[in-house]
Amino acid sequence: MTQQSTIAERKREFSFTHEEFKKLTSLVYSLTGIVLGDHKKDMVYGRLARRLRELGMRSFSQYCDLLDSKRSDDETGFLVNAITTNLTKFYRESHHFESLAAHAQKVTRDRSRLSDKTFLVWSAGCSSGEEPYSIATYLLSKVPSLSSWNFKILATDLDTNMLNKGKAGVYKADAIQSIDEPFKSVISDHCNIRGDSLYIKEKVKNHIHFKQLNLLHQWPMKKKYDVIFCRNVLIYFDTQTKNNLVSRYTDMLRDGGMLCLGHSESLHEKPENLHLHGRTTYFKGEVSS
Questions:
Q1: What are the catalytic residues?
Q2: How far apart are CA 100 and CA 142, in angstroms?
Q3: For the whole model, what pTM was predicted?
Q4: pLDDT score, position 282
Q5: Which strands, in side-by-side order, build the sheet including 208-212?
Q6: In the listed set 28, 48, 83, which residue is the last one of a domain according to the structure?
Q7: Given this model, what pLDDT does residue 35 score?
Q8: What is the largest CA-CA distance in the chain?
Q9: What is the bridge-based pairing of β-strands 170-172 and 225-230?
Q10: Does a structural domain hold residue 137?
Q11: Which of 51, 232, 280, 286 has the fewest CB atoms nearer than 10 Å to its CB?
Q12: Cβ-contact 156, 126 below 8 angstroms
């Protein structure tokens, strides 16, 4: 430990030993699979200090004792919500949306001759909802026939606070100021702006179902998906967990289905039937034009 970091720790409001840090990060790993290295100690302290104040505690030792007590089941939810990273914005990594629209156009064209007019999308790790709303608004704009289909988006996250924000569909109006065209016009057509707030229209919200889900637990979904978005989520897991998740995602895709990962999440190991088509965009099986 450097002299500078030692001085910083002395200035902290709460004592926070390395052993307490390791106990908390081990618990987070067992609950979520998220790996928090030693360089995340300041982040963990910052995320949990507010919780200690709310509980009237004076040290992380007291907090660890709470997590060891019979009341731990209630508190682990607060712990996970505090630690989970929630950085997102509308139409992040725009190249995925262009591929998404092309894929949806092909699927609707191929299935138009069939009775199966279902198009299912899963936004895994949806945070506060910007991703599923981006998916919904872009597809409704570029593939308008989907409005009459069974077009559903499952939006899941571990953090219940973020899910509640997503369900509300209310954001700051300036959240779309930095969006490039044509995305800005797309979101503008599917929201109302009143004062400093942006409200997603009900006709968009009706296509989305928000649900809490731990990706490491059993998945209750029975149907397979045409598209799965899991962006900037895998980076928090170790290699084995990451590989297992990608394999499970592949199993959950329909033949020809599309998997979108984050910009820094290239796969070194992947199922044989998952093929890369463009930046961090994969398809299950061979994809015809």
A1: 47, 157
A2: 10
A3: 0.84
A4: 96
A5: 208-212, 150-157, 118-124, 225-230, 253-261, 281-284, 274-276
A6: 83
A7: 86
A8: 70
A9: unpaired
A10: yes
A11: 286
A12: yes
Q: Count other C-beta atoms under 10 Å from residue 48's C-beta.
A: 20
**Does residue 289 sit within a domain?**
no
| Cα 83 from chain centre | 14
Looking at 83, 105, 128, the residue that finishes a domain is: 83
* Ordered alpha helix ranges (H), the chain: 3-10, 18-32, 41-55, 60-67, 72-83, 95-111, 130-142, 160-168, 183-189, 202-205, 239-252
Number of domains into which the chain is organized: 2
* 199 contacts 133 by C-beta, under 8 angstroms: no
CATH number at residue 242: 3.40.50.150
What token pair was written down for 216?
């490491």
For 238-272, the pLDDT digits (tens) are: 889 999 999 999 999 999 999 999 887 778 789 99
**Is 134 found in the same domain as 72?**
no
Cα(first)–Cα(last) distance of the chain, in Å?
Answer: 56
Rounded Cα gap, residues 18 and 226, in angstroms: 45
The answer for residues whose C-beta is within 8 angstroms of residue 13's C-beta and 6 or more apart is: 49
Burial class (CB in 10 A: 0-12, 13-18, 19+), 170: middle
Q: Which domain holds residue 99?
A: 95-284
Low-confidence ranges of the chain (pLDDT < 70): 1-11, 85-87, 287-289
Treating both helix axes as pointing N-terminal to C-terminal, what angle do 18-32 and 41-55 enclose, rounded to 10 degrees?
Answer: 90
